[in-house]
Specification:
Blueprint (H helix, E strand, L loop, with lengths): L9 H24 L23 H12 L2 E6 L4 E4 L2 H5 L12 H4 L3 H15 L6 E8 L5 E12 L5 E10 L1 H23 L3 E5 L5 E4 L1 H7 L3 H6 L10 H13 L2 E9 L5 E13 L2 E10 L1 H77 L5 H41 L3 E4 H11 L1 H4 L3 E8 L4 E4 L1 H19 L9 E2 L2 E2 L4 E10 L4 E8 L6 H4 L19 H10 L5 E7 L3 E9 L14 E2 L1
Parallel strand pairs: 12-16, 18-20
Antiparallel strand pairs: 1-2, 1-5, 3-4, 4-5, 6-7, 6-10, 8-9, 9-10, 11-13, 14-15, 16-17, 17-19, 18-19
Helix pairs in contact: 1-2, 10-11, 11-12, 11-14, 12-14, 14-16
Length: 600
């Protein structure tokens, strides 16, 4: 018979103690009843009445075998015979008991198990072992193989010679299948964990390694054997981090996605998302951790943060430069106003100076004649007439100069100070255009103003003046092409000045708002440029003095301190309309975000 010390079936363990006690006595009694036949007596035969209540040892064994599905054998080494219980052929798929010669068992033994099992039996019969337990395969009558777990021992005479041996057999085929499925499942799980892109680790609280997969090896940059010898805490970039994680685990239980750093042997740092849970491995409580490498993500985040900081700094620098350019553009506009007004004032001041000089000369002539007693009545009357005319001329030009200075002063103060006040809109527009006369005199443009009487505003006249000034200059330069002309003369011939009409209309838009339309009949704006006219630094006159900030200042000023909105419509070859809608009472504070320009 066969023997190999492998796992015993659970059923064999359950009945092994009982069968060990009964087997020898039962086998001896069966042999005494049927000395010439290997077949057992029929346990279902007639019994005395008292046997139903106190069955003999053979019946108890039969009941145990039936209940557990086990089988027993009894081999007489001296006689060369062997007996099997009726459950043995049923274990092999027989419905009725077949002929069972002494070699019945050995002929059904699997070829791969034969040498091992027979050697195990021989070793035990030779007295090298006190008992044996082994597993092997027997051929099933229906085909295939049945796994058998066998357990027993030899019986010896006084000289120590084995004279018979007996034991129990249990079908462990299903147990082996389950064991194989479990083993295959464990192998699949191990392969999955080995191939997983996430590091899977099992460690003890005191930092010993129980398991790690291939990703852990790659993540930590160490050989598996070296990694398994390294205390877990030594792998952290900050060893105190592990103590903090254990404290968190004790406090919260399982958690996920804690950002932790590990340090490789080469000094490089690896960022991971660490998730923790508990597990029991081989009866030992342990910590199960998953580590997901986020080093690339952290590097990208760092680069993104740096890029954002650089972009924010560049934006701040750009805004500072833009503010400087806008201020320079505003001051340049004011400078042009100063130059124009200075040129305009030259005429009345020159005339006044000439009149005053003439009065002085005539007074000196009159004095000389009076001193020489040569003054005649007619000459004195003529002097008085000249003096009256010169005084009138002098007063008229001084008044004109004073008006120019007053207009310039109001516009200049408004544009430079940004003070808020109540003003009459129509009169202010006229004052503003008066200050722009020097610029408009070089063109053939006519500016018409239509504004309702007594239309007042409580706002920032300087900001409004800046808006209208920029619109006028923008129309002169872009709508009528004055910016393309170097002067009024080209060579020896007079260059034709651009002609056209600019209309500024202002009217109440309900009780609380004002609408201002600035309309020119110039060249218009190309459709592909219309959406960009309010963008900073956008200009079609690059290299010809255009900064691209004029309409940008208009948009920011209207939507900023004036608290209104501005939109533009244009028809190429026919003209452009800017529509400004303002509250009659400007907001107290600047809006946080300027509205987008409306295009039409």
């Amino acid at each position: 018979m066969a023997a190999e010390p492998v796992m015993m079936a659970l059923a064999a363990g359950a009945v092994g103690g009982l069968l060990g006690v009964l087997l020898g006595r039962y086998a001896g009694r069966r042999a005494a009843r049927h000395p010439s036949s290997p077949h057992p007596a029929n346990p279902a035969g007639a019994k005395p009445a008292h046997a139903l209540h106190e069955p003999d040892i053979g019946e108890r064994l039969e009941m145990a075998l039936e209940a557990t599905g086990a089988a027993v054998w009894d081999a007489d080494l001296v006689a060369g015979t062997c007996w099997w219980s009726d459950t043995f052929p049923r274990m092999l798929g027989y419905r009725t008991r077949p002929a069972m010669p002494p070699d019945f068992w050995e002929r059904r033994l699997h070829a791969e198990d034969r040498e091992r099992v027979l050697a195990h039996i021989a070793s035990h019969l030779a007295g090298e072992t006190s008992a044996y337990a082994y597993s092997y395969r027997l051929r099933h009558e229906g085909g295939g193989w049945v796994w058998i777990a066998a357990k027993g021992r030899a019986f010896r005479d006084d000289t120590g010679r084995a004279v018979r041996y007996a034991g129990i057999m249990t079908d462990i085929t299903e147990a082996r299948r389950q064991e194989e499925r479990l083993r295959a499942s464990e192998e699949r799980l191990l392969k999955i964990m080995e191939a997983a892109p996430i590091a899977v680790n099992v460690t003890t609280r005191d930092g010993r390694w129980l398991f790690c997969n291939a990703q852990s090896v790659r993540l930590m940059g160490r050989e598996r054997s070296e990694l398994m010898r390294t205390p877990v805490a030594d792998l952290y970039a900050e060893p105190a981090d592990r103590a903090a994680l254990i404290a968190r685990f004790d406090r919260e239980g399982a958690f996920r996605n804690a950002e932790i750093r590990f340090r490789r042997p080469d000094g490089s740092v690896v960022w991971v998302l660490s998730s923790w849970n508990s597990i029991e491995l081989d009866g030992e409580a342990a910590l199960l951790t998953w580590l997901y490498d986020i080093t690339d993500r952290k590097a990208a985040e760092s680069a993104m943060i740096q890029a954002r900081e650089e972009a924010e700094q560049a934006l701040a620098d750009l805004r500072e430069a833009q503010e400087s350019l806008i201020q320079a553009e505003t001051m340049a506009s004011l400078g042009q106003l100063v130059a124009g007004v200075a040129h305009e004032i030259n005429t009345p001041i020159g005339i006044g100076l000439t009149a005053a000089s003439h009065i002085g000369e005539q007074a000196q002539v009159l004095r000389d004649r009076f001193t020489g007693n040569a003054l005649r009545r007619s000459e004195f009357l003529e002097f008085l007439d000249g003096l009256s005319e010169s005084s009138r001329l002098l007063m008229a030009n001084i008044d004109r100069a004073a008006s120019l200075v007053q207009s310039f002063k109001q516009v200049a103060v408004d544009q430079s100070s940004g003070d808020r006040r109540v003003f009459e809109l129509g009169g202010y527009i006229q004052e503003l255009l008066f200050s722009l006369r020097p610029r408009l005199k070089r063109t053939n443009l006519r500016v018409a103003v239509e504004c309702g009487d007594e239309l007042t505003m409580d706002s920032f006249p300087g900001a409004l003046g800046q808006v209208l000034t920029n619109l006028v200059i923008n129309a002169v330069v872009h709508a009528y092409g004055d910016g393309d002309r170097g002067g009024d003369r080209g060579g020896d011939r007079l260059v034709e000045r651009p002609a056209g009409t600019i209309r500024i209309t202002a009217q109440a838009d309900g009780a609380e708002r004002v609408r201002i339309d600035f309309i020119d009949d110039g060249a218009g704006i190309a459709p592909e440029h219309l959406s960009k006219v309010f963008d900073p630094f956008f200009t079609t006159k690059r290299g010809q003095g255009g900064s691209g900030l004029g309409l940008h200042i208009v948009f920011n000023t209207v939507t900023g301190p004036l608290g209104g909105s501005v939109s533009v419509q244009s028809w190429p070859g026919q003209g452009t309309r800017f529509t400004i809608q303002l509250p009659r009472e400007a907001p107290a504070m600047l809006p946080a975000v300027a509205a987008e320009p409306a295009l039409g």
